User: Fold these one by one.
Assistant:
Number 1:
Amino acid sequence: MMTPDERLVYMANQIARNLAARGDEAAALATADHIAAFWDPHMRERIMADDRAALDPIAARAIALLRRRGDPGAQSAATVFAGGADAG
Amino acid sequence: MAWLGEIDLGTRASALPDARMVTLTIDGATVEVPEGTSIMRAAALGGTSIPKLCATDNLEAFGSCRVCLVEVEGRAGYPASCTTPVTPGMVVRTQSERLTQLRRGVMELYISDHPLDCLTCSANGDCELQDVAGAVGLRDVRYGYEGANHLAADKDESNPYFAFDPTKCIVCSRCVRACDEVQGTFALTVEGRGFDSVIAASQSEDFLSSECVSCGACVQACPTSALIEKSVEAIGTPDRAVVTTCAYCGVGCTFRAELRGEQLVRMVPWKEGKANRGHSCVKGRFAWGYANHAERILNPMIRESIDQPWREVSWAEAIGRVASEFRRIQAEHGRRAVGGITSSRCTNEETYLVQKLIRQGFGNNNVDTCARVCHSPTGYGLKTTFGTSAGTQDFDSVMAADVMMVIGANPTDGHPVFASRMKQRLRQGARLIVVDPRRTDLVRSAHIEADHHLPLQPGTNVALLTAMAHVVVTEGLVDEDYVRARCDLEAFAEWAAFVAEEARSPEATEALTRVPAADLRAAARLYATGGRAAIYYGLGVTEHSQGSSTVIAIANLAMATGNVGLEGAGVNPLRGQNNVQGACDMGSFPHEYSGYRHVADAETRALFEAAWGVELDPEPGLRIPNMLDAATEGRFRALYVQGEDILQSDPNTQHVAAGLAAMECVVVQDLFLNETANYAHVFLPGSTFLEKDGTFTNAERRIQRVRRVMEPKNGLADWEIVQAVAQALDLDWNYAHPSEIMDEIARLTPTFARVSYDALEAHGSLQWPATDATPTGTPTMHLDGFVRGKGHFVVTDYIPTDEKTGPRYPLLLTTGRILSHYNVGAQTRRTENVAWHPEDRLEIHPSDAENRGLRDGDWVTLKSRAGETTLRALVTERVAPGVVYTTFHHPVTQANVITTDYSDWATNCPEYKVTAVQVSASNGPSDWQEAYARQAERARRIEPVAAE
């Protein structure tokens, strides 16, 4: 049974692993976008506050990107607002 | 059975493509019908009813009863009007002295072997034999009634919902043909020859023991009371009908709720229903008795803590408690310390209101829905690749498919009415690929056999689908013109290079998937070259740690082969619950408003802020598992749950229980004191689908009306309860009818722009997008291009699950559902459906059973890293060695005690389909089961109301 902090790290690593085939930098960017788009603010703050020792390299890079962005807007390939409308 | 108020045209419509119109004369009147139409149907369309017994318009014409004979000018004899097609200039007479003599002669024979008990017969007034006897003027039976007959035959009352009385049977074969043609089970037959012919179920078994799946098609087809609903026997024939939509699976069958006065007599599938085309399954047709079940809670209840008994209170007190507690908790712990869960069993309007309550009233986005645990990966995967979170086709599309690939779905159990359509098409010659660890009924059953069954190791979907893509790319099977015209070429090139690598080949991945490479290559070739190829998938795709990747892999494959944007093809998620699609459409996810628009999108947010008059939170909210985690940490303290039972349905039950137990106020709005209610502080009694107005949206994006059939027994429809909570929170909500809620949805949601109750009445139903450009809806998506612009290929690398088998847990558990039950069973367990499935059983392969010394029916302990439970074994070759399977319909089993916290990487959809387990012999329930049973019994106590 994971603690909530361990779960956040696990989730970030899992996202990074599934995006890793895009190449390290693109995967880190996509991981950061994904977390920005789908995690609630407290979860983001928690993972950014973590020492990142348990994070895989791509996930760690993603979290660094998130910290650099400060208060990120959710902008990612997964949530492209304009092109993703369901207006048919 | 005559359909109350509906006209039976006798035979099916012409099946000829582009049929030209034919003009003929019937009884002196000119009639124009499409070529290929029968004389019987042409006459009916012209207003002339020809007597008939073996004909009905949802079956192929049979020509057996000889009652529908007609005269055709210039033609010798008396042809059967049901089997004789019209020809140009044909002159038909349906009435003459000779025809009357012939028909009367036939009827004399029928009636000579029929009980003359019309006045006490349950079909009195609703009997086609009786009608025809009247129509032909039968006054006497020259043969008498003393000859050989079938009047001593025993009645079969084994089926809980209908009876078979052979004495009333005229052996017209309508039941047999309905079972064959409509349902596709082939459970019935005519046994014996000539006068000895009788209808038999399977090998002359009773109906309950036979292969009959109790879909009701035979009962619907029967022209007499030989097959009749027991509810009609008990109550009498109905005298009015209301068309509404079923509240079970995502097929969304429409039914005529037939009533006598205010009492529901039966649910009859509506012929005009575009999702079900007049067919039904055992759940929708018969399993509606839960609405009147004694365990239904009809009064609001509250309690201070979950160890206290419930206390019945007024609506005002219960609603007031919800409002005061949520406001208190927010004041003490912050705006984001509360949230809610919308229901896929409730209407679009109710779901919309719950998410609005949370966003507008609670001031956060902590709203989620049961799609979190089923099709959230579909939303992510299809939106990423196609640009929209929905299936691409209507159900009718399957009749144009040349190839079907069914992945991780068991439609004959989960979506039985659509499975019958699939089987109809398969019997016409369509080819079939089944990708499933289990040998489901579609793999091989009566007149159906898959060309390829790929029994993959659970958890290897991505490896398998990427290997199929490898075959498509490396063998030159890509539809290059399609890809060039419609897809992002840069992304395609990256994807094609990735899948073409040797590491993705069927041979390289065979050790992972355990699917022989040659079989996989053959299946991939069939999918790519077999014509129009449609993919249908279910929770065997989504409920994995790579659920979203699998959906993307499916979309990649469909785009690469040009199989999106045309009839007969597409990517089609089979939705589990009746309104999963609608709940998702209505903004039930914590990051999206209705129409799948992100909460961070300032333009969309401004639209809702203007409409709702508040500033909205731009940050995504918590998903269900995040809420539970936050609860155990004390950061999330109040939850409003409408129509879901997360304790039973969500994974790792003990973790869910811990989260719920940690909250200060849990509000459950439901029909029954479900398992989640054991941890609730306020219970708001809900209304059934029979008791309210609204809409459901099925798996094909079809928005259909739910109509109030009877008054809500609890006093309020669910949307009224949500509105009362909102008003108690000082929100200015004043909806007078659900149609007004839909009008608001349409104003704020581009894909619903042309949806209104008036439009639904006019068109019967609408498939979204229904916009100014597509005012009558959109049966097939992406016709002229993808919603997102260019179709987007995404690389899907296979990442094995972290749930590993090993010496302690050597088997893989996968879970699912069975035909007779629905989801957590809260409804179906409270019906006679328990006759088919009184308990969850563990399917285990004979070799695994033998290794453990287990026999069929033995009690076994099923244990994982998360927990353990006990249930009885079902030894069967339906599962492969190393794989076990069970259902989650019964709380006494609590199958989700076993499932783990592992989930889809993109959406947190739980990995229900892969849990490492051990199975061993057992003597009784686990400690947890016993403790839970005690706790549940205690939690359901209701304080007696003091006498005044």
Note: The two ends of chain A are 44 Å apart (CA to CA).
Number 2:
Amino acid sequence: MSAHHAIPLKTLLSTTLALVVLTVVTIAVFYLNIPAPFDVVVALFLATFKATLVAMFFMGLYYDEKFNTVVLIFSFLFFFVFIGITLLDTLFRESSISIW
Amino acid sequence: MATASNGNTLKVRYFDIDENPKEHYLNAEKGLKSWLFTVDHKRIGIMYLASIVLFFAVGGLLALVLRTELLTPAENLMNAETYNRVFTVHGAVMVFLFIIPSIPAALGNFLLPIMLGAKDVAFPRLNLASFWIYSIGALFTLVSLAVNPIDTGWTFYTPYSVQTGSAVILMTFGVFIMGFSSILTGMNFIVTIHKLRAPGLTWGRLPLFCWAMYATSVIQVLATPVLAITLALLIMERTLGIGIFDPALGGDPVLYQHFFWFYSHPAVYIMIVPAFGVISELIATFSRKTIFGYWAIAMSSLAIAFIGSLVWGHHMFVSGQSELSTVVFSFLTFFVGIPTGIKIFNWLATMHKGSIDMKTPMLYAVIFLFLFTIGGVTGIMLGAISVNVHLHDTYYVVAHFHYVMMGGTVMAFLGGLHFWWPKMFGKMYSEFWGKISAAIIFVGFNLTFLPQFIMGSQGMPRRYYSYIDQFQTMHQLSTIGSYVLGVGFLIIAVYLVHSLIWGKKAPANPWGSRSLDWMTSSPPAHHNFNYTPVINNGPYDYHKPISEFTLGIAEDHEHGESVEKAKEETKA
Amino acid sequence: MAHATGTVESHVQHHFKSSDQQFSSAKLGMWLFLFTEIMFFGGLFVAYIVYRAWNPELFTLAATQLDTVLGAVNTVVLIGSSLTVALAIRAAQFDKQKQIINYLLITIFLATVFLVIKYFEYTHKFDMGILPGAMYTFEGIDHPKANVFFSIYYMMTGLHGIHVVIGIGLMVWLVLKAMKGAYTSSYYTPVEITGLYWHLVDIIWIFLFPLMYLID
């Protein structure tokens, strides 16, 4: 019955605490006025960390079949493919043929 | 004795296949309701089959109307505006209503659980919901045709799709809904392949059709939601004017093309990868040979799914996207040729020194190899930037994708339909008429689309109801070819319907296949197999004589009785 | 309804061999569905990133119109609701029928709080003329594409809001079923699946909050 793992109460509560603390940190970092683009990098790093906590402990991926984690990772991978290749266009529209 | 994955020991016995069973899935339940609200994957597959055949007929008739208009440069049947609507509807119906659900939803639904030795797909009710969602989506598109047929082309490019007076919202909302049907089918198939394989059916024993369906389902699940959000934003653009895609409000129409093709290029592989799966089955069966390069074919499907989602921008070489991305997309596009080439060579190697039996399905497989290779190679040519700029939006492109979609997917679909027809309905069709119509279709197809390659390379643009006089001979050849094609399809319709009523009863395994779908009766029992089969052989073990080719029994489906008892029943 | 009939419990559908197989199939199916949800929202995130890369100054200007405090409160509210839905699943795993219902009701309450706060945010903006799309009339942001930022804002938070509403609907349905004692330690798949969905709604907000409200 490995799929039916009950997540310990302590884990759930400490995950919640960590998420709230990280939210406070995210806001604190905002008021520190870190120069761009590092403000976005820090904010996204914190958000990703929070999302990972939710996925591992609230959604139980830590205890679950590993293939479910693979599915989640692939979804982010394909999102990055989408945005990454689109940016190759939108960020470089201004370039002329001379750069080649 | 065989050991299942959960460690339980299963007793393996052999049983004979029930030839011409009195009870099967077609007569297990009666009445219209037993079809419309069935959760049986076989019946859902048949309902899909009926729907897509209907829409293929609609799209095909529209194509004949288009070709008739093009007999002369003059305005024969319709004006430019009507022509725009007709080619848009032809494209949208063929893409969204016919070809995307064609092999996966119709043949896939019917075959996948049988090939896995399962009783049904993982979520049967979701499967039914998926059919109904498809029907509702189709209804929306039909209503849009009644209201004000769309004239944007099947790609719904902004800003024209925001400005036109035709029923864009109804049409795109219909496609949006059908997208969910596609997503649910994909999810269902992936879970089914992962969780419901019969004991002994390892990943390495999966029929290649299942691998192809797996790759297709992955694309359906990853790309279709992007189509959904694209169309949702397009609808918002028309209703609210959100300005994300509309340049008049500060938006970027090229971004729309990125969104659209992020789905629609992988969607091309939703259309063709299942066809590869069908062809693998046909070629192995009718060459009487173990498939050459099993893992190469299986993995190349997944490689196509992955690489195919990196190349969408090759539809946008002249859209004004950056040169950098143009170069990258062109470079990546060539890579798709590798896994596709791997498949072609493996199929040829399978046929090499095989004892080829040229039955109708195999004839279609050979036609597929011929036509699809032309379609694929011209695709590689179009992936080269300099050639593409010359040929962009000409008949060359039209001919290319018809060689892939019709010469590839439709031929494989016809091959698959003829191959599994006896399994589906328990009746044999006329082999003579099968071959005749395959030949007519082959001739008609090439007559229709070869001239289009030539016209396109000479500069005939697509999507015009008129043309300069120099193209008239080519256009007329093409139109005559389309009539020949129409006759071919008509003959198929006649003899298939004829076979349903007057056809000879089909044996369980008329082709001598080694695959699991032929190890059950024709038509299959209500739950596919009367016993949970234990798979001892690979699907392409043609080196073993068929008399040795047997299945084990793990469990009696109907009564939950012991294995020993089941064995006695089969002996008796 | 986990009354045993014969050797197989009745919640196991006929095509599954065991309850475990059915449970893990349902879970895999849900994860694949979440995959599609990520790609669905992914499209909007792509639009966001593209426009932010084009107009970084616009995003800095426009984000000043969003209320950081309300955004932060909503973040904490959703985190809390994620905890309670996880606790509801835990209650089901330990056969505590009453607790399942209570935790689900708290989750529904928190989700409603989220929507009420969102409602006040929206109406406040509507009053200022920050309306979605072509109806945009606000003149406080000196940028020609200010309307596009708010279109993206409304699309992203709106789609997220729709998901919250759907989540509430699902949980109301779960409560009604739970009142009839439908969920026990041997069968609680719908609770588990809805939980997964709800956590994803939380995750998306975790990304939306810094990307929308915290730009400088």
Note: Chain B has one domain: 38-571.
